[in-house]
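hey so u asked for the seq, here:
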Amino acid sequence: EGSGIYFHTAEIAYVFESISSYISMNLQNCTWDNQSQTFSNQIISHWINTATTEKPLEQMVLL
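ran it, structure tokens below
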């Protein structure tokens, strides 16, 4: 738990529901588990809300 690589823009794959190889830049359809898909949906909701109201959602359920 708590392992992995974290970097700026890491959320982009969740925003666009796609994954890519940073070397090839070829997008592929995601085959995420339910937890990853739920997280992606939350991130998308935050981005949409921020774009339309200039405020992120007030609450997000962390997985």
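Residues 1-63 form one domain. Strands lie at 18-20, 27-29.
lmk if thats what u needed
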